[in-house]
Design a protein that fits this description.
Layout: E1 10-15, E2 20-26, E3 32-36, H1 44-48, H2 51-55, E4 60-64, H3 81-94, E5 100-105, H4 107-118, E6 123-129, H5 139-150, H6 152-162, H7 166-177, H8 185-197, H9 204-208, E7 230-235, H10 243-252, E8 257-261, H11 268-271, H12 273-285
Parallel strand pairs: 3-4, 3-5, 5-6, 6-7, 7-8
Antiparallel strand pairs: 1-2, 2-4
Helix pairs in contact: 3-4, 7-8
Length: 289
């Protein structure tokens, strides 16, 4: 689904031990920006279809597909949190980027936050859209989610039930991803179905980030270590990442800004690109903390 991107772009493939990592690049001038998409049925172009052309005239854009998503298939190995963090380093090193700004959504937001903690010298600015890695669940819900992640039949079957047919995909997107439908909703459904047909389901990151008793990926204790300018964007109607978690996370990051978008669900970048893209571009362009 990348050939219909409304701008000139280049596709690269990085050879890794487990497979090839596809990276879409656009723009040839300005500071570098790395875009990290979400988990499950997602890809670089699914989440960033509208942001890539918005940034490309001013920035050099690098948008990898996570392992087992988009063009990063086949991938022979576990793509858990630590592996995704290493993927980011491989992208930066391949393109000889000493540092870059990061924009991350959901799973990608968690990895972006983690990278700012672990590699502070390589992150100049950070935008986290409804990031993962900052939430917890009530005990019974947590146990059920952990069992779902641990049982292969369930973590393969549930995504197919949500995005198996077009009516199922439409219902899932309306209920779980958007609070108001974007103008290109039918195209979004087409893209979700194409990615699902290619084999996407719940990601290794999603399945391994939850432990039997607590979250294995919980960045909150280390968020005060982030020292780059940081912006959080959060939909007020997001049922995947509840706003209270993102508000708490923003309070833990020194000097962070947060914007709560009204009547907005989890997939901020696809529901409201006309609102979100200028915010991201302005924040990345601002040289002041």
């Amino acid at each position: 689904m990348i050939d219909d991107l409304d701008l000139e772009h280049t596709v690269h493939h990085l050879d890794c031990a487990e497979g090839r990592l596809r990276v879409i690049t656009a723009g040839d001038t300005g500071p570098p920006v790395v875009l990290l998409s979400g988990g499950g049925t997602d890809s670089a172009t699914l989440s960033w279809r509208h942001l890539i052309p918005a940034l490309a005239p001013t920035f050099r854009v690098f948008a990898p597909d996570w392992p087992k998503q988009g063009g990063s298939r086949p991938w022979d190995g576990l793509a858990d949190h630590d592996r995704l963090v290493r993927c980011v380093t491989e992208v930066l090193d391949h393109f000889e980027l000493a540092e870059a700004a990061f924009v991350g959504l959901s799973q990608g937001g968690a990895v972006a936050l983690a990278y700012a903690i672990e590699q502070p010298g390589r992150v100049s600015r950070l935008v986290a859209l409804a990031p993962g890695g900052i939430i917890d669940f009530p005990p019974v819900v947590h146990q059920l989610l952990w069992l779902t992640a641990k049982i292969p039949f369930l973590n393969r079957t549930l995504p197919s039930l949500m995005a198996g047919s077009r009516p199922q995909t439409v219902a899932f997107a309306r209920r779980g991803l958007f609070a108001a439908l974007p103008a290109d909703f039918e195209q979004v459904v087409d893209e979700i179905m194409a990615e699902s047909a290619a084999g996407s389901s719940s990601s290794d990151w999603q399945n391994t980030s939850i432990g039997p008793l607590r979250m294995r990926v919980d960045l909150r204790p280390r968020l005060p270590e982030i020292n780059c300018p940081t912006l959080f964007l959060q939909g007020d109607s997001d049922i995947g990442i509840r706003p209270r978690f993102t508000i708490e996370a923003a309070r833990l990051v020194p000097g962070a800004k947060i914007v709560i978008l009204e009547n907005t669900g989890h997939w901020i970048s696809r529901q409201s690109p006309d609102l979100v893209n200028p915010m991201i571009k302005d924040f990345l362009s601002d040289s002041a903390p």
